[in-house]
Amino acid sequence: MPNESKIKQNKLTKEQPLLRIGILGGTFDPIHHGHLNPAKQVAQWLDINKITLLPAHIPPHKSSTSADALQRKEMVSLVCQNDPLFELDARELTRHTPSFTVETLKEIKRDNPNSQIFFIIGMDSLLNFTSWHQWQEILTLCHLVVNSRPCYDLSTMNNETNTLLKNHRATQLSEIKQCESGRIFIHENQHWDVSSTELRTQLKVQLKHQQTAHNAIPDCVLNFITQEQLYR
Predict the structure, then answer these.
(1) Disulfide check for 22: which of 48, 72, 169, 173 has CB 3.0–4.6 Å away?
(2) Domain positions in the chain
(3) pTM
(4) CATH match for 16-193 among 3.40.50.620, 3.90.380.10, 2.40.50.140, 3.90.76.10
(5) In order along the chain (232 residues), what is the average pLDDT of each group of 10 residues?
């Protein structure tokens, strides 16, 4: 693991009231309550008024998506129209190269210089975070908020992740007021056992699993999927 001491810790002063921005990225193929409900809990926990949904065009770890960029954008847009907590940021969908988190965060920070960014990820992303492109610089731009299952055993993590948490984990929300970026918050939220891959499979055989899809996907998104005949 690279030398953690090189990661800049952006300290705050009492004269720096900052806008808190929550960001949730993903392919959203399709977007579902497994994405939305934990994000709502994080917003309440951190007193964030808006969560930005950031659909990726070409995720670095995936070769393709089932729905195209415009269809995934429309599904996210429908969610935002129906829930004022969420807003769409479609900047990555205009790119023709893989979507690297660090580049997007730089742009958002330039657009919102007087802000504190909270980038929401899952525990699976934390476990491979040190393999992300320029992960050290990511931590100079934002705080990480990791959605975890209650009572998750952190001792089972690999050595790199343990070292990462040792150097950057915040255990008190008061630490938000001390650093503009560079901290990792573990949020024990209610676990929503939903996966886009499983939902796409269920939608292919919708007569058998129709109720499951209805419970996991917002109505506005499900109507769009039906209208566009996606995932058939």
Answers:
(1) 48
(2) 16-193
(3) 0.86
(4) 3.40.50.620
(5) 53 70 94 93 93 85 77 97 97 85 95 94 91 96 88 75 94 89 88 78 67 82 92 86
